[in-house]
Write a structure and sequence with these properties.
The chain has two helices and 20 strands. With 261 residues, it is an alpha+beta fold. It has two domains: 113 residues, no CATH class; 136 residues, no CATH class. Strands 7, 8, 11, 15 and 18 form a five-stranded antiparallel beta sheet that branches. Strands 12-13-14 form a three-stranded antiparallel beta sheet, with no helix packed on it. Helix 1 packs antiparallel against helix 2. The protein is elongated and about 100 Å long. The two termini are 21 Å apart. The model has no long low-confidence stretch (mean pLDDT 90).
Length: 261
């Protein structure tokens, strides 16, 4: 009977983690470039019970095995394309397809992001909303009157007093990974490379399997609200069933305790 309690308790803990994951998805339903997560579980060890009088080495068509519950093995990110929002701001960029923007973090390392809502800092460098420099760095001249970002990542400007000549000021590179699901979520719409993700492959947008860049658009979260609500209801019901299992096991133990000789 105690086995039933511990098994059901592991189920309650697993569904609590599932609810936590769903809650984070729903909280980020309007976060630019957010990629939803889903919890993955595995069953625990099984105990093989050999009936009395039967040798454990005998060939058996079936076994008597009792499991010990469930455990969390991963919270996997889904990198499907999110919804598209038009902003008409030339510094708002979206990757149409595979690829990540590269940003320089405060410690000097490189982070990777799908959030293309870039701004200009005091030195007119392209930076993220958190102030992280785009990598490789791109600086917009002080006298630029118009900024254009092509689908291949070429950044060009028109300068004041010269409306006929376009000047290129830099090129945006994108990164892709052999296993994007292995990236570590740092927070702030930034992912970090990990041994599971593999080495980043850098190239020009539109080449080598990378997506193209769309200026004036943002990629929103890929969270489907209805899908998450259905998953939340399912997790809640599973949690309740495990709780009822513990109650049933407790009642059976109580019955045994009340038995009289």
């Amino acid at each position: 009977m105690l086995r039933a309690m511990t098994t059901a308790a592991s189920g309650m803990k697993a569904q609590q983690t599932n609810i936590d994951t769903i809650a984070n998805n729903l909280a980020n339903v309007n976060t630019t470039g957010y990629k939803k997560s889903h919890a993955e579980f595995q069953d625990l060890l099984y105990e093989s019970i050999v009936p009395t009088g039967r040798a454990s080495g005998d060939a058996e068509p079936t076994r008597v095995e009792i499991g010990h519950g469930v455990k969390l093995v991963a919270t996997n990110k889904q990198f499907s394309q999110g919804l598209i929002r038009q902003t008409s701001n030339p510094l708002d960029l979206m990757v149409e397809g595979d690829g990540f923007f590269q940003v320089r973090l405060p410690d000097g390392s490189i982070g990777y992001s799908r959030d293309g809502s870039f701004k200009l800092d005091a030195e007119r460098n392209l930076v993220t909303s958190s102030g992280y420099l785009l990598e490789p760095p791109i600086q917009i001249p002080q006298d630029a009157t118009e900024i254009n970002i092509a689908r291949d990542g070429t950044v060009s400007v028109l300068l004041a007093g010269n409306t006929s000549t376009v000047q290129d000021v830099g090129n945006i590179e994108l990164a892709r990974f052999p296993n994007a699901g292995g990236l570590m979520a740092r927070g702030g719409n930034v992912f970090l490379q990990s041994p599971a993700s593999g080495q980043p492959q850098l190239s020009t947008p539109g080449l080598d399997g990378l997506g193209e860049i769309a200026s004036g658009f943002l990629e929103m979260s890929n969270v489907e609200t209805v899908e998450e609500l259905v998953s939340m209801i399912s997790a809640q019901r599973a949690y309740e069933l495990n709780a009822r299992t513990i109650s049933a096991a407790d009642e059976m133990l109580s019955t045994v305790n009340q038995l009289k000789r």
